[in-house]
Structures are given as C-alpha cells and as structure tokens.
Design a protein that fits this description.
49% helix, alpha+beta, rod-shaped, six-stranded antiparallel sheet, 872 residues, single chain, seven-stranded mixed sheet
C-alpha cells in the first residue's frame, strides 16, 4: 500500500513537468480573445472650472477639490489614429456628457429619474470615437451632487471596443474568482446549517455566516465596476452597495451572539440595536430626501469597523481562556476581513474613485474559507459527539435490556413452569371430563334406549307417565353434560371444525325430530318452513350446524309457554369465498360428544340420522368436493322465531355471555347452565357466520343465523315443509303383515338408527341383521343370504353407492339378485332416477315412517314369506 501511494505522487509530479514543458516550448497561434493594442490617453488634457479658470493637467489620473453641483470641463484633442476606436474610463457618483467636434456622443446620469436619492453610481464608461473624426476636439462636462467627486478623474485608455470590454473582464478575473469562492462558501455554510438542523445538533448560527457570504458576493461583484457589461442599471448597483453595508454587521453580530459567552453577547446586542437603528434611519432619510445614502455611508463604515473590533476583542478573550482552539482560526479569518476592510475604508475617503473592495474581498475570501473549514470540523465533531452519546445511550440501553432479559428469563421460567402446571391441569381436566362423559353417557344412553321400548310397548298409563319423566330428565342431564364439555373445549381452543358433504334435508329432519317431543309436551306448534330451491347437498360441518340449531330451538321451546316455534331455512349468494376456503378441514374429531339424544316416542316416530352416537362416528375426510360441477357458495340462513317471553332490550347485549340467565326469579323452573347460547355464538364465529337477535319483551324473539357454505350439488331440496307440519297419527296401529322367515340387512353408521329400524320391524317378526359400515356389510353379504338389503347413503369411508358397487363386484355372492333399497334423506327431484340408474331397486326417504317401511318390504318380499293378518 505504501509503494502504491509513492507511485501516485510520482505520477502527479511527471504530469506537472509535462505540462510545464508544453507551456514553455510550444510555438502556437495566440488565441486569446482579449488581445489587441491598448493606448493610454492620459496627457494633453485641460481642466476648466465653472468660474472660467483653466489648468493644464500633466497626466491622468487627476484629483482636486470641487464643490457639489460645480461644473467641471475636461478637454483634449483626439489623434486621428484613434478614429473608430473606443475610449474607456471609470467614473464615480457624477453625471457627465461627452462631445466630440461639438457633437454629443455619450452621456451618463444626466437625464436619469429615481424614486429617491441622488446617487448616480459608479460605472466603467465605453465612449465610441467616430470614424469621421475631423479636428478631434473632445470635451467631458462633469457635475456631482457630492463634494470633490466631479474633479476626480481616473486614467483613460483607447482601444477597440471588444478589446476594452474583454480587458475589463480579464483584469477582474481574480476578483470574480474570489466572489465565486465566497458564494460557494455561503452555500456550503447553508448546507452545514441544514445538516445541523437535520441531525439535531446544537445550532450555532451558521446560517448567519451564509447570509454574510451571499451579501459579500453581491458587494464585491458590484465593486468590480464591470457588471454594466451584463446589466447597466447603475442606480440599482449603487443602492445595493449601501444596503449591503448597512446589513452586513447584523449577520456578524447575530453569529457571535450565538457563539460567545453571555458577557460578550451583551456587547453585540447593543451593536445589533445600533445597526438596526442605522438601517431604519438611513432608509427613512433616503426615502424622505433629507440625506442621501452617500452622505450617511460613513455610519455603516463605522459600525462595521466597531463590530469587527468587538469580535476580535471577544475572540482574544475566549482564546486566552482556552475555550476552543477553533476560535483561533475564526480570529485569523475575522482579522483578515477587518484588515482588508480597514484598508478599503481608507482608500474610500482618499481616492474617491476605484475598486473599494480590493483588499476586503481578499480578506473576505480568507474569512469565508476559514469559517467553512471551522464549521465542517464542528459538524464532524457534533456527529462524533452524537455518535459517542448514542453509543453511551445504547450501552445503557443494552445494560437495561440485559437486566430486562434476565428478568424476562426468570419470568419465562416461571411462566413455563406455570404453563406446564396449567397444561397438566388442563390435561387432567380433559381426562376427567372425557372419563366422566363416557361413564355418565353410557348408562344414560342405555336408560334412554330401554325407556324408549317401555314407551313403545307399554299400555299402562302410569308407567307411560313415569317413562316420559325418565326420558325428559335423562335428556336434560345429557344436554348439560354436552354443554359443559363443549365449553371446556372452547376455553382451551381445542374446538375444531370437521367438514364434509351432508344432505340439508337430513339435517333439518334430525333437528326437527330431536325437538318435536319437547314442543308437543308443552302443547306448542313446531313448524318448519324451507325454500324449495335450497341446494340438496352442502359442504360444511353438519354436526356443529345441527348443534347451533338445537341450542337455539331448545331455548325457544323452553321459554315459550304457548303458541309456536318456527324454523325457517333460506339462503343468499355469497360473493367472497375466502370465508369458506379458510375453514380448513381437520382430520381429528375433538368435539363429537356434544349433541342431544333423540328418542322414539310412538309408532309413527320417523327414522332419522341421529347424532347421539357421534362418539363412535368417524367423519369422512373430504379434501375434495365430490361434484363434477364447479362449487358455488351461498350463505345458508336459519331463522328461529317464537312466541315466548321475549328478552329485555338491556339484556340482549349480554345474551351470549357464559352462564348468563335473565329473570332468574321468574324463570328459575327452567333448566339449563347458561352455556348454550355462548357455545352457539362461538361455533357460528368459528364458521365465519353471524348471529342476530331481535326481541320484544313479552311477545317473542327471532334469532337469525347466517353461515357460509359450499354447494356440492345442483339438485334442489324441493318442498319438504308439508311433511314436517302435518301432525302424525298418534293412534297405535297393528302390523300390516308378519314374515318370520324373512331376513333383511340394514346398513347404517349410526347405532341408534339401526335400533330404531329394528324397533319399527319388531312386530313384523322379520329377522334383522345390521352392519355399521360398508366393509362390514360386504363381509356379511358374502356369508349370508338376505331377502332385502337396506343401505344408508351418507356413511363415512365407504358410502352406500360405493358399497353397492363393491357388492355387485363380489364373486360367488349369495346376494347377486337381492333387492337393494337406498335409505336417504334426499327427498329431491331426480333422486329416484339417480338411484335407479345406478342399479338400486328402490329408495326410501327419511324420516322413515312405519307404514311406508312396511309397504316397501311388502312390495319386494317374496309372497311365500309374507303372512297377512286375518281381517275378520
């Protein structure tokens, strides 16, 4: 790396040597634009005063005393060799006109009009000498509003016009360079001020220095006396010079007020007040025409000098205290500026004409560069201090964070310990609830089953009353257990949806018959109203939807003493399918022990898919919807209305709170835990649904549940309302036939459904075998000959249609030609044709009625096996 650095310096030295050789030894055409002869025209002049006295001038420049308003005439003879050339000279604060051979060829300030003030300004004049020069007599008539200005004359040169102009610019090249440097320093200082503000460093008035540099650029550019090459309003330039002189001290004072100690600040506050007073007075007197800026300029000069001396004194005191070494650089800068300004002030009051920024321009350039350097160091120092401070704060924060981390580690350990204890407690609770559920539900199911047979077969009025009470109490107990289990799962977040295809009519059937008995006991009308265009087959969690409806309907029946309870089923299209698609299926079933048990009350009690045995029921894993048609999405709506006691408006907002029961004194005879509606709301929310309640106290309530579902079949449910709203025949009927030698097989995945089927055929004396799945049924079909086989359609793993197809594929089966009847809740148009097209002999819709079941068996059972009762 060191060798490379040395090579860089060597390369730089070689380049410099090459450039010097090129400059010294080159012999090329001179392409300088300002080339051309420039002649001095400073001799042979005669000055004539207003009183008529004349005097020969040995050589220009010339300076003598003169009075304000006195006319001075300068005359000479122009040699003919200068014909067509241009004469140039500098004038300051005077009006004049030039005549050659008696003809006016130039004037300045004679006919000017100004809003205020008398200052004509300083200007470099370019006077064209005519080509047709005769005698060449030139007269320059001069007057000034100020003493000693009319008789002050600079040197005069003659050359070509373009040479004169370019020579003027060339002579000011260094001055313009210094003005550009000062301007660049001002812009840099503004940028540093912005950086300070942006980085939130302590502001030390850098922007005042920026303004000082900008004003300095204006002043020193005007003092080059060459701006009239670009723009010729000399009155503007003159006023700008005086305004800059007035305001210049303000920026110096404001900067050091921000940077020096308080005891020095008082001095600068006094100077600031005097400076601002000077600005106000000069502007007022100039505008009123009392005094001209030119007459008052000395005040601005004095304030600049005094401010500079105050700054130097303050900096010396500060440096002696060793406050900051950077103040030494500032001292050098301000010393250069004040020294140059003092030299120019002396020149201003002695020669009256010239570049009065000659030395102060140089001093200002040094000052500007030093101030930029100083403040770059200050900004860097500020950043360094900020970084150090931030590092210190960060270290402190790291220390605090480490302490917090230690606290959090301890807290996490305690939390983990508490979590482990909570998990253990929850697990113990779950195990306890599961065991209790199994232990309690098993005998209750047995009680309900046996009690059903008592209700069916007994004719004793008292026994039937006792059995009815047993049934009601058992169902209430089972409902309470289910609510507690569900609420426990909701609390622990283990309640999950298990989705699959289901028949809507079967769902309505189950709900209706689960609650019909309770409604009848209270003498209530239980109505079902459904849209006949509802889809026959949907995709969703049938078990949880059934639970929602049962909970709401059960409440409606409990809190209705007279009148009716109505279940209305409708639908609406859904545009956004995300709600459905996000309900991902789960392969496990954590929430199956949660539904009420339905029982048979009399002979005409329809057969239905009961959900009491969902403990043992395996929900099909339907990851794909089994439909050839694209799945549509609807919102299925269940509206439950009653004519019960209603709900007070102030209680509706608490209706779905856990363990909430209202009007306890009035309704204390009504059983329940207060969990049903809380569970209902959670289940609805889990399925992205909504539940709304409207109620009028004393008149009844309306619950509306809306749940998004997928449609998996274009078949319609049809009109199923009539069969639910027709009161069943309560009269016990005898069997229409007996067939003790007949043998049938019923296949259903719900044990209770099989028991009910057997109970319905008990009086026909038919031998009934049962299977709870398709594979089990196939094994029995291989080994046994049946007269009729009843297959449930919707079964897990292998449904009725698949079972039928596998049965037909069996070789050497004794049931090749056996009648197979489909059991289905799909009471829809086209269902019969679909099943017959597959090969089923017939189908029987749920709810199965005893009369229809017996009629179906009579239709397909061989006559030799049937014995009809003797009517006589």
């Amino acid at each position: 790396m060191k060798i490379l650095k040395k090579l860089i310096w060597v390369a730089l030295a070689i380049e410099i040597i090459v450039l010097l050789v090129v400059v010294i030894n080159s012999n090329v055409d001179n392409m300088t634009l300002s080339k051309g002869e420039i002649y001095d025209f400073n001799t042979g002049w005669t000055i004539t005063r207003q009183d008529g006295s004349s005097q020969k001038i040995k050589s220009l420049p010339y300076s003598e005393k003169s009075k304000a308003g006195e006319k001075i005439i300068l005359s000479n003879t122009i040699p003919k060799k200068y014909r067509g050339m241009t004469m140039s000279f500098l004038s300051a604060d005077k009006q004049f006109r030039v005549t050659i051979d008696g003809r006016q060829v130039y004037e300045f300030g004679v006919n000017d009009s100004r809003p205020f003030g008398k200052t004509p300004g300083s200007v470099t004049n370019f006077i064209d000498i005519p080509e047709n020069l005769k005698e060449g007599i030139i007269e320059i008539e001069m007057t000034s509003p100020y003493d000693n200005y009319a008789s002050n004359i600079t040197g005069i040169t003659i050359s070509k016009r373009d040479t004169s102009i370019l020579n003027l610019l060339k002579s000011n090249l260094g001055n313009f360079a210094m003005c550009i440097i000062i301007l660049a320093c001002g812009i840099t200082l503004f940028m540093l001020a912005f950086i300070q503000a942006f980085s939130r460093q302590t502001r030390d008035g850098i922007s005042y220095l920026g303004f000082m540099c900008i004003f300095g650029t204006i002043y020193f550019s005007i003092e080059t006396k060459s701006l009239n090459v670009f723009y010729g309003n000399q009155t503007l330039y003159s006023n700008l010079v005086f305004l800059v002189l007035m305001l210049w001290p303000v920026f110096m004072q404001m900067y050091y007020i921000n940077n020096l100690e308080e005891k020095f600040q008082k001095i600068f506050y006094i100077l600031l007040f005097l400076t601002l007073t000077n600005v106000a007075c000069q502007l007022t007197l100039q505008i009123l025409g009392v005094f001209d800026f030119m007459n008052m300029a000395f005040v601005s000069h004095i304030l600049i000098f005094i401010s500079g001396m105050a700054i130097l004194f303050s900096l010396i005191c500060t440096i002696r205290k060793g406050k900051d070494k950077l103040f030494a650089l500032e001292f050098l800068g301000i010393l250069a500026f004040i020294g140059g300004s003092a030299a120019d002030l002396i020149r201003t009051y002695t020669i009256h004409i010239g570049d009065f920024g000659k030395y102060s321009r140089f001093g200002m350039t040094i000052f500007s560069l030093l101030m930029v350097f100083v403040h770059i160091l200050k900004v860097i120092r500020g950043y360094s201090a900020s970084i150090a401070e931030n590092a210190r704060h960060m270290q402190m924060e790291v220390q605090v964070i480490e302490e917090k981390n230690q606290e959090l580690t301890i807290a996490n350990e305690e939390a983990e310990k508490a979590k482990a204890e909570a998990i253990a407690a929850a697990k113990a609770k779950s195990v306890f609830l599961a065991n209790m559920s199994h232990e309690i539900r098993t005998p209750i199911n047995a009680i309900l089953g046996m009690n059903t047979m008592i209700l069916r077969e007994s004719d004793d009025k008292d026994i039937l009353e006792y059995a009815g009470n047993i049934q009601s109490a058992s169902q209430t107990l089972l409902s309470l257990i289910n609510d507690i289990l569900d609420f426990s799962k909701i609390e622990t977040g283990k309640l999950e949806l298990v989705q699959g295809d289901y028949a809507l009519s079967s769902l309505i059937n189950d709900v209706y018959h689960m609650l019909l008995g309770k409604a009848k006991e209270k003498g209530l009308a239980f109505n079902v109203d459904s849209n006949k265009n509802l889809p026959a087959k949907l995709y969703g969690d049938e078990v949880r939807i059934r639970q929602i409806l049962v909970n709401i309907l059960n409440n409606a029946i409990k809190y209705t003493e007279k009148g009716s309870v109505t279940l209305k089923v409708g639908m609406a299209e859904q545009q956004n399918t995300d709600a459905i698609n996000n309900n991902k299926e789960t392969k496990t079933n954590d929430c199956t022990e949660n539904n009420n048990t339905s029982d048979i009350e009399n002979e005409t009690m329809p057969y239905h898919d009961n959900i009491s045995d969902t403990d043992n029921k395996t929900i099909p894993d339907n990851n794909n919807i089994t439909s050839s048609q694209p799945a549509k999405n609807i919102i299925i709506t269940f509206t439950i209305s009653d004519t019960g006691i209603g709900i007070k408006s102030e209680n509706i907002s608490h209706l779905f709170d856990s363990f909430s029961r209202f009007d306890e004194n009035k309704n204390k005879h009504i059983e329940g835990t207060g969990l049903g509606l809380a569970i209902t709301k959670q289940l609805t929310k889990l399925m992205n649904g909504k539940i709304n309640v409207t109620s009028k106290y004393g008149e009844g309530s309306v619950f509306e549940v809306s749940i998004p579902q997928k449609v998996v079949s274009d078949l319609k449910i049809g009109d199923i309302s009539e069969k639910y709203n027709t009161a069943p025949d309560k009269k016990k009927k005898k069997a229409s036939f007996t067939a003790p030698d007949a043998k049938v097989l019923v296949v259903d995945d719900v044990k209770m459904n099989i028991n009910v089927f057997k109970a319905l055929l008990k009086r026909t004396k038919i031998s009934v075998d049962s299977a709870m799945s398709g594979p089990e049924a196939l094994e029995m079909i291989k080994d046994n000959k049946y007269d009729i086989i009843f297959l449930d359609h919707m079964m897990p793993d292998m449904d009725g249609i698949e079972t039928y197809k596998h049965m037909k594929e069996l070789e050497e089966s004794p049931n090749k030609d056996t009648t197979v009847i489909m059991l289905t809740a799909n009471a829809i148009m086209g269902a019969k044709e679909e099943y017959l097209g597959i090969g089923f002999s017939d189908y029987l819709s749920k709810p199965v009625q005893a009369a229809k079941l017996e009629a179906m068996i009579l239709k397909y059972l061989p006559e030799e096996l049937v014995t009809k009762p003797d009517i006589s």
